[in-house]
Amino acid sequence: MIAFDAAGSGPTVLLLHSTVCDRRMWDPQVPALVAAGYRTLRCDLPGYGETPVPDRPYDRARDVVDLLGTETAAIVGASGGGRVALEIAARWPDRVSALALLCTALAGHPPSAALEAFGEREDALLEAGDVAGATELNVDTWLGPDADEATREKVRRMQRHAFEVQLAVTDEPEPIRVEADLSAITAPSLLVSGGHDLPDFGRIADQLATRLPGARRLDLPWAGHLPSLERPDEVNELLIRFLKAG
């Protein structure tokens, strides 16, 4: 069972966090979405926040869809949460009314040299037992220049906790891999990238803009990888505008 919380009433907006964070990353978005007339549902993916690493193979997309029951939802996904959102929208297109993807990851994307170098450095730090160093590497890599120290500390806590949860498991089961056909997606989409992010995520957004129906492509020159934390008021406004237009 994955941990979740819900607030507000109205059409449901499902918030899927980056894998640098957990569902607390959406703290600045929930009040704004509720005030705009939406029910917000957010969860911790397996191995993050209050959701433990499963003890058997697991299907992240199905676990999230199960939270919705029979509801249809708009989905806002950040980074790794965007990858899960894309899978949900492809496997259950009738359950997704809109997709807002912030610096989304994409299954099968070949990493750039910069992203590979980041992964190798993170692995080396964790193998050396330097969890603090690996945490700081993530904070420095994924937050843009507009993130204040309180935001950096919030991401630091979330990433450190994720490492602690995941490293405590010696035999982590593999997630169930499902080949999702993106051509099955019917929901209109908003594809956001950041000018200070690694190049992979702008390229992914460009690629998806040619593949998804009704796609709107937006680059935020000021943003790093986590714009919803870096300038929450600005991102809240663009999300609500997109959802209302849907």
UniProtKB/TrEMBL annotation:
- Keywords noted in UniProt: Hydrolase
Annotated ranges, domain AB hydrolase-1: 13-237
Q: Spell out the molecular function terms from Gene Ontology.
A: hydrolase activity
Pfam families with a match to the protein in the record: Abhydrolase_6
- What domain of life does the UniProt record list for this protein's source? Bacteria
Give the matching InterPro entries. AB_hydrolase_1 (IPR000073), AB_hydrolase_fold (IPR029058), AB_hydrolase_sf (IPR050266)
Keyword Hydrolase applies: yes
Q: GO CC annotations?
A: membrane
* Matches recorded under PANTHER family: AB HYDROLASE SUPERFAMILY PROTEIN YCLE (PTHR43798:SF31), MONOACYLGLYCEROL LIPASE (PTHR43798)
- This chain belongs to the protein called Alpha/beta hydrolase
